[in-house]
Design goal:
With 218 residues, the chain is an alpha+beta fold. It has 2 domains: 65 residues, lambda repressor-like DNA-binding domains (434 Repressor (Amino-terminal Domain)), CATH 1.10.260.40; 134 residues, Umud Fragment, subunit A (Ribbon). Helix content is 19%, strand content 27%. It is built from 5 helices and 10 strands, in the order αααααββββββββββ. Strands 1, 2, 3, 4, 5, 6, 7, 8, 9 and 10 form a 10-stranded mixed beta sheet that branches. A hairpin with a 3-residue loop joins strand 7 and strand 8. The longest helix is centred in the first third of the chain and has 11 residues. The protein is globular and about 60 Å long. 37% of the residues are buried.
Length: 218
């Protein structure tokens, strides 16, 4: 027996979420986990990439490797448009304006477009997309990508998140960063370009929303 299910559940993913990230179907993942389909070298490489482990870790007699500190698997728009869609074009996408300190951007008050909803946000009424502006999170996220945001999922250390603050004029400002740690007073976050780690005051950046994937502009 292989360790696909164990590694999938360690990330908190359903079979459908793993299938979406690996550009396959949920029944295929189920058959692979049960050993009803042979775990070929090609499948090992494909699943290891999205689970962020070495291919050998998928085998039952190999110790699991801890997930590397890498971005979450890409939810490429080409993948989502094949078999990962669950609804109409009902996911709101907010635009952004000029960036500020730490790459902060102002969010538009209303959605600028609506896109097809992927499986990770299938039953998340408040889910939304946000355009990426700037280069502070490259190569994980590029300008023009759409990050897919789950506003009610509890954030964990190592998650990519959108932090939001609302100013005195009721304007929303957002930051896309990697969440490293937190205290009662601060969020500790990381960006990739340039590679920096710094603290943000929680009384200013009050909301932290988990990024569950992206639509990549390619």
């Amino acid at each position: 027996m292989n360790r696909i299910r164990e590694l999938r559940e360690a990330r908190g993913w359903s079979q459908a979420q793993l299938a979406l990230a690996a550009d396959t179907s949920q029944p295929q993942i189920d058959r692979l986990e049960k050993g009803e389909r042979r775990l070929t070298e090609q499948w090992m490489r494909r699943l290891a990439r999205v689970l962020e482990v070495e291919p050998a870790a998928l085998l039952a007699d190999e110790p699991a490797q801890p997930p590397a500190a890498l971005p979450r698997p890409d939810l490429d728009i080409r993948t989502v448009l094949t078999d990962g869609l669950v609804g109409d074009r009902d996911l709101p996408v907010y635009g952004v304006t000029e960036g500020g300190r730490f790459g902060a951007v102002s969010m538009t008050a209303e959605p600028i477009q609506w896109v097809r909803r992927p499986e990770p946000l299938a039953r998340v009424p408040a889910g939304f997309g946000l355009y990426v502006a700037g280069e502070s999170m490259e190569p994980a996220y590029r300008q023009g990508d759409i990050v897919l945001v789950h506003p009610s999922m509890p954030a964990r250390r190592g998650d990519d998140v959108v932090l939001v603050q609302v100013d005195a004029h009721n304007d929303r400002h957002a930051l896309l960063k990697r969440l490293v740690d937190w205290t009662a007073e601060h969020w500790t976050v990381r960006q990739f370009n340039p590679d920096e780690q710094f603290d943000l005051a929680r009384d200013l950046w009050r909301w932290t929303h988990v990024v569950v994937g992206r639509y990549s502009r390619r």
